[in-house]
Predict the 3D structure of the following.
Amino acid sequence: MATKTIGVDIGGTKVAAGLVDASGEITCKSRVPMASTGDAAAGLASVETAIDAIFEQAPEARTEVTGIGICAPGPLDPKTGVILNPPNVPCWRNYPLAAEIERVFHVPARVDNDANAAGLAEALWGAGIGYTNVFFAILGTGIGTGIVFDRKIYHGRTGSAAEGGHVTINFNGPVCGCGKRGCIERYASGPNIARRTRERLPGGERSAILELAGSLDAVRAEHVGEAFRAGDAVAREIVTETAHLLTIWLGTIVDLLEPDVMVVGGGVAELMSSFFDDMRSGLKNWAINQRAGEIPLVLARYGSEAGIAGAAALCR
Amino acid sequence: MATKTIGVDIGGTKVAAGLVDASGEITCKSRVPMASTGDAAAGLASVETAIDAIFEQAPEARTEVTGIGICAPGPLDPKTGVILNPPNVPCWRNYPLAAEIERVFHVPARVDNDANAAGLAEALWGAGIGYTNVFFAILGTGIGTGIVFDRKIYHGRTGSAAEGGHVTINFNGPVCGCGKRGCIERYASGPNIARRTRERLPGGERSAILELAGSLDAVRAEHVGEAFRAGDAVAREIVTETAHLLTIWLGTIVDLLEPDVMVVGGGVAELMSSFFDDMRSGLKNWAINQRAGEIPLVLARYGSEAGIAGAAALCR
């Protein structure tokens, strides 16, 4: 009998759970609202409800599940499984979530942040299979990264390593939401691609982006992507520039880590995927590593289910 | 009987060797010129001469030495011990240096680049003792870095990881010798500190730097250091700015790697050491890691002997 693990992906408003088999396949899923009160027990109850829903759908899982992994908003301590003080989940302050889950469900539980966990899922089951050193990035609303060595997440001193979205690529650049200047996230996350597009557009130039969005204020990265696929010149300029900025950033990643593979997921990664070859060849200008261009740059296996798969991977 | 290892530090013009005991103490040393011809055998003979000089000074070493480690200019392959095509050592092209040394001296031999090796020496014997994840940087003529996890050098895919001197901190910055723009080395290596000083000085301002150097063209980082220690205002401005730039860079290192300790050596590190506390507290602006300032930033144990100690550490 193959063992399975449950992955739980906690966000500010929802808890998604899934049953994941030994090959990383998600065989059933559940989704419930996350408790919105400041009550720690209510938050735990939301997680329990999502997990119980899995057991209702797949009763055999009660005996097959060997662990429950949880992706939660940080900061958190992956070594102890304690949730520290996440701004998006106000119900938990120094809350021993892993221990509570173990107490309720009687299986080992692990907690980590979403990008670390999703990187592990790619290393075990996805685009990073067979590689020793995996650099993973999720390019979406923010830019999160994970570093996986020998199928283990690299955590650093306190579990706060691999915050690659906040690598400074221009110390004179614009101030990021994090307070630093010129982070790659400040240029290349979805909302920042939209911002750059809004700053670029008022020149009076016609663009399908504006037609799709309806107004300048309404422009989102999705409109840029749709216009790009339709051949719009401004969208192409924005996407090309984004590829250039991501190449500069990957140059730093390669010169520091020289990973065996770079796996990128998220909506922005999908948008950029037709530029992956250009980005790899552009590394000849932005990495001193003469063989940087040989390192595969590939799309992640998991899309919107990266959190569930990643959480489930934590117990493998 | 305690085991010892020999460390050999090969540069473009010299070969230095040392006998190193189990606590990292260098108990005797030798130094010979490096062969300057294009002849591979002559290069090997220079290394042999330096090692033989150790055995002549310490005959008991013939039975005590358990390995010979070698720092050589890159590119090289630390896994196979092959020197690839170093511009500074033209006698060797795809030369199996480790295998040749093993053939001659009948002990295991290892080859690595100087910053990786020096970082390992700090982790085993120096300022990094007791820390799991060590980030090491040598700030001198260039900026070299080493990453040591669990007392082992992190090499990456082909041995070219940890080229931290070429992390881009400003993609609009000046072109570095490596071809990238805005590398930290382009701002904060010794020659680049001198360059920034020369660019700063022609304003007609009086400075002890010019008196020490004799002329603008002759300004070197050493003059900046001497003038700084004497209280010169321009030198203080340059050193303060260098500390700021290094802080930005360390912010990227911390946000990616969150090491347990940051060890820095070399002449520029000594110059900057009175700013280490400022740099650590400056990380609150340049790392999103809220506990970045807790990470020790310390001077390396080894100075000019880092190459010998590092090479000897390769066989521990």
